[in-house]
Amino acid sequence: MKEIFPEIPTIQYEGPDTKNPMAFRYYQADRKVGGKTMAEHLRFSMVFWHTMNGGGHDPFGTATAVRPWDSITDPMELARTKTRGIFELTTKLTIPFFCFHDRDVAPDGATLREANRNLDEIVGFMKELMQDYPTRLLWGTAQLFFHPRYMNGAATSPDPAIFAHAAGQVKKAMEVTRELGGLNYVFWGGREGYETMLNTDMGRELDNMGYFLQMARDYGKEIGFEGQLLIEPKPMEPTKHQYDTDTAAIWGFLQEYGLQDDFKLNIETNHATLAGHTIQHELHFARVKGILGSVDANQGDMLLGWDTDQFPTDLYVTSSMMYEILLNGGLHTGGLNFDAKVRRPSWRVEDLAQAHIVGMDAFARGLIAAQAMLEDGELPRFVEERYKGYRSDMGKRIADRSVTLADLEAWALDRTIDRPESGRQEYLESVVNRFL
Ligand code: XLS
Ligand code: NI
Ligand code: NI
């Protein structure tokens, strides 16, 4: 088969001193870190939407990218070429997984039936490619935000015809994800939110969204889909407010609609930023609640305030992420999915490869640093120590939930209670910096 990206070689590890832009400096798939290989820890994934379909458009300008399929006009041939493209590029970068939305990979149709027919053809082609390439499906999803019908959301649309169309679309997307052996299925509520309260019945919209997800969960069980269901938080953009605001909002939502046993979260770095949280906050919250499922690995620009979906390069951030992921015992069926796009001026195909390389190296270094922090033990010990009061006397009774307000009052009445121990933030930051 003729290569789609002849300018991209198979990327190999050459070590920190190499000047070769087409080589890994830190990512060594089979290097063991704390008992598991880097490949087992990191589980990288490439996205179809940005990497194959992204052209560098922004609100002020058309595509800048030059891609090998630019002269193809037949939509199905274009879809097949890009599909081959993602299998080839993931393989050359030694990225084991990919992710897609139904409408990224195959053309839409005038009806759902027509769109399904196009999708089936490409899914059949993907299955053939899976025999020749090692690339596997991390997750599939339905694109419920591009078509004008979804301008007010899908499950939260005021129009039940749109709710129904979206339900049919999700049903099909779950079927093909299962058919392709997808390890997870993602719900990102593209426009599930509102633009103005003046025209919005929020109570109805939330109930509809809960019901939609219950139906999807039940259908997954019915067809024997064994993958993990994931919800991806995002507070805004494209809408003014999105209901899946952050990990904590989704945690509450899952409880209310009885979804807590079947759903985990797919947490994206740039979405955490938009929510006014660090990604470490989001991963930590999900970890302690047992709902850390997968990660959309990218980063935002702190000065722009948009979901710029840049490739992750910040070692301080990747270390904090890997610290939480190690404490979570890994990502299990999830992965580190590069939901990231090259910048508009990075128009060459080589930029696509180099963007993934720097992202993979950034997480390899983050992994090494986080493992070293945990092995050193000072940081976890500090936290343990800080709460030591809960292991003795009155603290233990609070921890055991065996006191009343009156008991605590009696204990406190005649004691002089002064400030607790120093939090020592600056010192702890110096400990982190030792490992970077
Ligand atoms: C958009 C989201 C989207 C999801 C998949 O901001 O990150 O790309 O990951 O629907
Ligand atoms: Ni995402
Ligand atoms: Ni995003």
Explain this structure to me?
This protein is α/β, with parallel strands linked by helices. It has two domains: 12-376, TIM Barrel; 393-434, no CATH class. The protein contains 16 helices and 14 strands. It has helices spanning 38-42, 48-51, 75-92, 102-105, 112-132, 160-179, 202-222, 247-256, 269-274, 279-288, 315-327, 349-376, 378-386, 393-399, 405-412, 425-434, and strands at 12-13, 23-24, 32-33, 36-37, 44-47, 97-101, 136-141, 184-188, 193-194, 228-232, 241-242, 263-268, 292-296, 336-338. Strand 13, helix 11 (315-327) and strand 14 form a beta-alpha-beta unit. Helix 5 (112-132) packs parallel to helix 6. The longest helix has 28 residues, at 349-376. The chain is globular, with a radius of gyration of 24 Å. D-xylose binds at residues 101, 141, 186, 188, 232, 234, 268, 296, 307, 339.
